[in-house]
Amino acid sequence: MFKPLKQLLQEAKSFNLSGDEKSLIRSKLQTHVRNSFIARQYMYRSKLKIIKLVFIKPMPIFIVILLALGGTSFAAEKALPGDVFYPVKLNVNEHVQGWLSLSDEARANWETVLASRRLSEAEKLAVNSKLDAKTEAKIESNFEKHANKAQERIAKLADVDVKAAADIAANFQTFLEAHNRILMDISTSKDGDIKSQLKAIILKVKAETEDISDDRVKNEDEVKTGTDVQTAAEGRLNAAENKLAEVLKFIENKKADISADTMVQIQAQLKVATDLIAQGKVQLNAKAYSQAFTFFGQAKAKTQEIKVLIEAKTDFEDEDENEDKDDDKDKDNDEDTLEERRENNRGSGKIKIDIGL
Amino acid sequence: MLGTNNKENVFLEIYEDLSDSVFRHCYFRLSDREKAKDIVQETFKRFWECLEKEKIENTKAFVFKIANNLIIDSYRKKKEESLDALAEGGFDVKSDDYEAILTSVMGRELVSMLDQLSDTYKDLIVMRYIDDLPVYEIASITGLSENVISVRIHRGLALLRKNNTN
């Protein structure tokens, strides 16, 4: 080894975190460790003790204790608005997890996750007919807050890393569009108040989708006209292929819950995604990087959308609906358009999430 | 079994011992200080979760294996900024932390050289010569055979020497 190289490698060994950086990460880890201890303690408590604690001194004190101890609960993670643990999920779990996001990219991403979580909660409540006006207003306001923060952070990130900003905006748009479809499908099967609450959320989601779509287009245009568009296109190809592999694995794990008809729809949608990747590769080989970048982005979005819709389908559709899924009647439905299928399902009370277009 | 405080103390001692070397490892593989810090934090977070569930034989190799997996995920997510972009951006220290700026400037030359290598060589050179990991530990972290690792390190060094001379 030549001396300068040896010297450089030697010098690299003194390349450390600064004192401040090391202390900051240490204190965040310490908080995480203590939270996990407290969360585990809650898991060990008997049901009776928890019920006593909750009902004798209802939520505020309970929450204050948790907050004072910096505690979080595994149980809270799946809580929905109206549940005892829901404020813990919002004010402790999500707060701490958000605090662990250090970079601008991680922070922007986290806000999009929170906005999507609020929509999932609205969907679950609506499916169980528990979405009242008060809860809807809270969810809508929380969703809007996180969607706006996500946009702010994406805009900030675009100043330093426009590719990452474009990717996060594209992901967020995909999630919003998928949730919009799910909310519409749930709304079709509901009547009265639930339908009205869902309508209000759907309108909000549509408005935010338009905003984020503008941001995505703006950031993508900047990437496409930049000097590094080839790297960006190749990066998106990797991302699209990885997402496809992830979703295929997900489908494999879920296949016991998926009917033959749904699988046909999924295969058709996967083919759309793989075709988009193939078209992108043709453009990449022809050195049309900007077009390749667009195709790969669409492929990744399509694949992500398939996953979100399958999750909703397996989570929300009624048991009896699943039993009927191999019926010839449903096979006939495959020939119908999405609108016709929604029309058939209108007010039936049965949830039907459509994967096909 | 360790008590709550003992376990926390053991974990924090491990953090004190290994955080700099894990950071160094992440930084020279990712060429991005902020991302390296994110991965250090996530590595120890996951290490803590494993520490709670199982007995860990070789702590250092285990921690590096977690970091290695996170870095591979990060590679998959997207390709990193080019060296030019890095140089134009005046490096990636976003704080006014003097110590952090100083170390980044120190490492700059080596980062430039390592960035000219493909990840296949760069990763192994970092593990062998910056992290000082023996070949058998690199094998347990990466899942590659010791022979493949030695060959790649040899080739990587040859490329580094060539670039260094040029």
What are the SSEs and their pairings?
The complex is a heterodimer of chains A (357) and B (166).
Chain A (H helix, E strand, L loop, with lengths): L2 H10 L6 H26 L2 H10 L2 H10 L17 H14 L4 H24 L5 H28 L1 H28 L2 H33 L4 H26 L5 H26 L3 H28 L2 H5 L4 H6 L4 H8 L12
Helix pairs in contact in A: 6-7, 6-8, 6-9, 7-8, 7-9, 8-9, 8-12, 10-11, 10-12, 11-12
Chain B lengths: L3 H27 L2 H21 L5 H19 L5 H6 L9 H18 L3 H12 L4 H8 L3 H20 L1
Helix pairs in contact in B: 1-2, 1-3, 1-6, 2-3, 3-7, 6-8
Chain pair sharing the greatest interface: A-B, 47 and 51 residues
Q: So how many helices of chain B? A: 8
Quote the average pLDDT of chain A: 79
* CA(first)-CA(last) distance of chain B: 57 Å
Morphology call of chain B: globular
Give the overall pLDDT of chain B as a whole number.
79
Order of helix and strand elements from N to C terminus of chain A: HHHHHHHHHHHHHHH
Secondary-structure-derived class of chain B: mainly alpha
Radius of gyration of chain A: 24 Å
